């Protein structure tokens, strides 16, 4: 949506929330392609009429340039002329190009035959069967850019679940925070091999058509500042956002996402706070879009020695003598993690839809990193993405990463198990070069 139209909606938000009747608008907005059925359902489920009106206006700002004039048209068609005039007085006349109307298919009802019980068997043999045409359940596209992404040859079609739109170019922002050299007072060791991880991930996400920005050796406050700046970007032209944290980590008290990552000053930021910067409240232009977080840091201090399995499950160990961990003992409280001094991200925890957090290790355990070749997790994930991104969705590829990393051993003894907290609503396929 154009910036001038966003400002008109924002100036009149109070009147819209007070007077708008969303229930009369849903059919028109759906047929005109302003919202998908998923978005309509989410708005309906947001609560009272005022809550629905507030959510509708907020979501409207994330749609294309045709969304504002089509919204005005829907207001006029539903008799909400005063609101239409209020918005139109603040906007120059917009001429819409005629759009192909969306055909709404209705089910064809066949009358049941009236017959006596004696004729039932005879009619079963003689009565022709007419197929009933069903209404399409495919969501309407957005006004400008949302359409079915063509899949590369060889990828099986999956009709049972929808896929996220991932065809914007560039696809979105990717922020990598790589903490290598820690201040002496932090009592944290330098993370040799982390630059190898960073270089791999930078190349990989550039190949997946992301705008990649790398920040190195950030303190806690600087990490918050970079995340806040990312949340203030206009993501309306993009389809996805990625945050990658490479640092030492620890356990902290949490409500939803476990763990925390350290700044080079020894002060940590909880993962659940990191995800909050990009949630729907703090970053409206990412509503309904996938937000991916990859955490290469320890979840705690425990070392996993594994358990005995049958011989056919055993794979060669790839760990070496140069393996290090990113573990720090658990913090008993998160008082030092208060975000009261950071006005850009209040500690609120709405439903984390469209978020995936991938951890290099199971919460509570160490994460192994080779000083020569980088971490097990990043090295494996980089290779899996290179080999499988053209054919497999993200969650499937992360399961491949989990399996391969679980086969490694550090110093011939210790194991590692990555894992994810997945709140995505659809399959996610990255863009790949053909």
TrEMBL record:
Name listed for the protein in its UniProt record: Caspase 9, apoptosis-related cysteine peptidase
Sample GO molecular function, one term: cysteine-type endopeptidase activity
Keywords carried by this UniProt record: Hydrolase, Protease, Thiol protease, Zymogen
One GO CC annotation: cytosol
Residues annotated as catalytic: 248, 298
Regions of compositional bias (Low complexity) in chain numbering: 330-340
Caspase family p10 domain: residues covered: 345-432
InterPro entries: CARD, CARD_CASP9, Caspase-like_dom_sf, Caspase_cys_AS, Caspase_his_AS, DEATH-like_dom_sf, Pept_C14, Pept_C14_caspase
Keyword Magnesium: no
Species whose genome carries this gene: Seriola lalandi dorsalis
Nucleotide-binding listed as a keyword: no
Sequence ranges of Basic and acidic residues compositional bias: 119-128
Pfam families on file: CARD, Peptidase_C14
Database matches in PANTHER family: CASPASE (PTHR10454), CASPASE-9 (PTHR10454:SF157)
Record family assignment: Belongs to the peptidase C14A family.
GO biological process, one term: kidney development
Ranges of residues in domain CARD: 1-90
Ranges of residues in domain Caspase family p20: 170-302
